[in-house]
Amino acid sequence: MLETKLADKPRFSDRVGLLAGAGRFPFHFADAAREQGIEVVCVGVRDHVDPALRDHVDRYYEVGLGKLGGAIRCFKGEAITWAVMAGKIHKVMMFSPMPLLRMLPDWRTIRWWLARKGSDNKDDTLLLSIIREFQKDGIEFASALEVCPELLADVGTFTRRQPTESQARDIAFGWTLAREMGRLDVGQSVVVKNAAAIAIEAIEGTDRAIARAGQLCRAGGFTVVKVAKPLQDMRFDVPTVGVQTIVGMAKAGGSVLAIEAHRTILIDREETIQLANRHGIAIVSLTGEEAAKTDPMVA
User: Fold this and answer.
1) CA 252, CA 279: separation in Å to the nearest integer?
2) What is the CATH number of domain 15-146?
3) Best label site of 59, 75, 189, 226, fewest CB within 10 Å?
C-alpha cells in the first residue's frame, strides 16, 4: 500500500536501519537522526553509496545491488524492525550487458525476481515489491522525511531572479506534462521552452535529461520542471534537487528550476541557492494550484 502522507512523528525512537543509495540525502538523514538520539544502522548499496557515510552512522555495512538477502541479514543481525530508504539507485544498471553477471545476485534476490515474473519494472512496482520482501522478515519501512521534514521545499521563489512571464507559462505547461509522466511512473522531470517539450526524464534520471536538453536546445534559456507523482509514496523516490542539479543546468543552459512545494527535497539549500544566484538561475517552489494559475488553458 502506498503511503502518500508523512507521519506526524518518527515511528522509531531508538534505532533505525538506513538503506542508502547515492547522493547527499543519506547524510542529511543520518545526521538528523543521530541529533535526535536515534541510532542509525546503515546498509549501503555498493557502487552507489558514498563510503564517507560510514562516519555519519553508528553501524555500517555494504552490499551489492543484487544482494537483497545480504541487506536483510544485516538488518536482522542488528535487530532492526524499522528502516528507511534514502539516496538514488541507478536502474540503468539493469540494462547493461549481462546484468546478472555484473550484479551476482544472491539466492534471495533470484527467488524474489522469479516470483515477480510478469510484473513491470516501474519504480513503484520494484520498490514496493522490495519493501514486501523486507516485511517477510519483520522489517517495516517508514519515510526518512519523518526525521528531517525540513528538507522539503516550502512555497516561494528562493533566488534573486524570478521567472519571466513566458517562463511562468512554461512552468504551467511543463507541470502538466511532468504530472502525467509521474502518473505513468515514467519519470519526475520535464524540460520545456516556448511551450514545447525538449526532454522528458525516463530511466536516465534528471541530471542526464538536463544534459540532453542542453544538446537539443543550444540557445539555452529552458525551464526544468520536477514534480512528485500524483500518488507519491513518501517512503521512496521522493523528487530531489540540489547543487548537482544547478551545476548541470548551468552547464546545459537552463534558466529556471520549478519544483513542487512540500513534496520535493531541496538538499544543501543554502549552497544550492547561492550557486543558482551566481549563475542567474531562478528556483521557484509552488503547488499545482499555483502552477495552474499561469496556464493559459486553465480558465
Assistant:
1) 12
2) 3.40.50.20
3) 59
